[in-house]
Input
Amino acid sequence: MPAILRIVPRKTYATFSEFIAATPPYSIGIDGIVAESTQYEQKGPYLNLNHHDSCDRLATRSACGQALCYMRAGLNEQFRLNGQYHAIVHANHPDEDVCTAWFVLKHPELTCQTIHPLLNRLIAVEDTMDTMAGAYPFHKDLPLLEEFAWIFEPYTRARQLGIIHQPAISEHTMIGIVTDVENRIMRHITGKGERIALDTRYTLLDKVGPVAIIEETGQHARIGLFGDGHKAYLSIQELSNGNLKVSVGRMSPFIGFNVIQFLSLCNREERPSGGNIWGGGNNVGGSPRDGGTKLKLVTLKGALVHCIRPIKA
Output
């Protein structure tokens, strides 16, 4: 098989060197499984496509955007085994960016073509949305968003139901989600896609400066959140183990919320072990992938207070 997908739930390699030592040649890490910036090693070959760590999020393409550029710049000519394109793609979760990056890396016969309007549009919009943590100001009534809602429904539904965050979730389950999305992408770019209405419901629990503290009720809550004028968020979801799954984000560096400082304060308070830490970039981050956080909401609010800076009038 030219391309193989491997998902180890919540696994993170601290460095690109560690990833190279632990995985076979022709391996490609995507979307944060390697906690370093995008890098390529010809001997192997090996590649890491990341926009979470050691980068300016707003100035860096998402994993799928990077994958498309790399593929069209000759990736499929370097990743060859016995004359045939071959890649082993590694991820640690099945979100929209991972699903789209996998599609790009699996189908060079499609993605190496520059003339493919529906595929180009899909990746351009997903790249923009993911780069800005879903905060790009598309109008929530835009028909395009209903098409995307249908494409990524297998993932957003699993996330809403808490399946993604189950401690015992298997690689098989995560690959199943990615495969379902991959099939929908194929239907979409061949003109056979569908549309579903957006569910943008969320519960506003509190607000600290520009940061809205929310519970996401609908599958597309963040579109609703930013559509209502909020520009930063702290989203919480209670896990089956009693911990919280926390995501934080802001539209851009121009919003008065220091995400990196917040993540650092949470790590200092929680003192997590190994690589299972609060992590992310300058615009987006979250609690440890494996098991969430033991920190309570009152502690998170206290950390937020220290990370808010006034906006110039």
